[in-house]
Amino acid sequence: HNTQPWVLEFHDDGAHGVSLFQRLDRALPRHDPLGRDRRISCGAALTNLVLAMRVLGWASDLTLQPTADHPDEVARVSSTARRAPSDVDVARYAAIPGRRSYRGPFEPTGVDPSTRDALVAASDVDGVEIRPIRGGGQIGALARVLGHAALVLKADRAYQRELSAWTAGGPNPLPDRVVLADRLSREC
Hints:
By secondary structure, the chain is α+β, with helices and mostly antiparallel strands. It is 44% helix and 14% strand. Helix 1 (36-55) crosses helix 2 (87-94) and helix 5 (157-167) runs antiparallel to helix 6.
């Protein structure tokens, strides 16, 4: 939905520190009731932040959920020393503007093996794992699960209102609008 549910706070402590906070006001109660997608978005923003620091020539120290006092603080990143960025860092950073969610229908043909192998090789980042799906049985089972999920979400009026609010043209909707739409769907 491109809610961008995170915000950065730069520290004036001389250590070039940055905290990443999740924005709970951007919650999607129907689409993401447990906040899983919000945390994935925060993880992507955090990865981009660390890459940016590396490209700027800084090694960084990453602390996840640094304090219990701020449960919305996802991580704190501080520079530790100067270091030259690697070619991999520069290439990954350069790819950031081209990343998109694919919303169209998929082709009935599979991904060619060289592309699949390149994607698996690119997943050498801590905490990331790619498991290629192989064989007609796995593909068919996944297709059935995804097809069923699509039907369930298509029939969920509150989910559809929330989706419309976030994907309509123009500025992002006010979070109250989404919460109000969810409340109205339960009352109707």
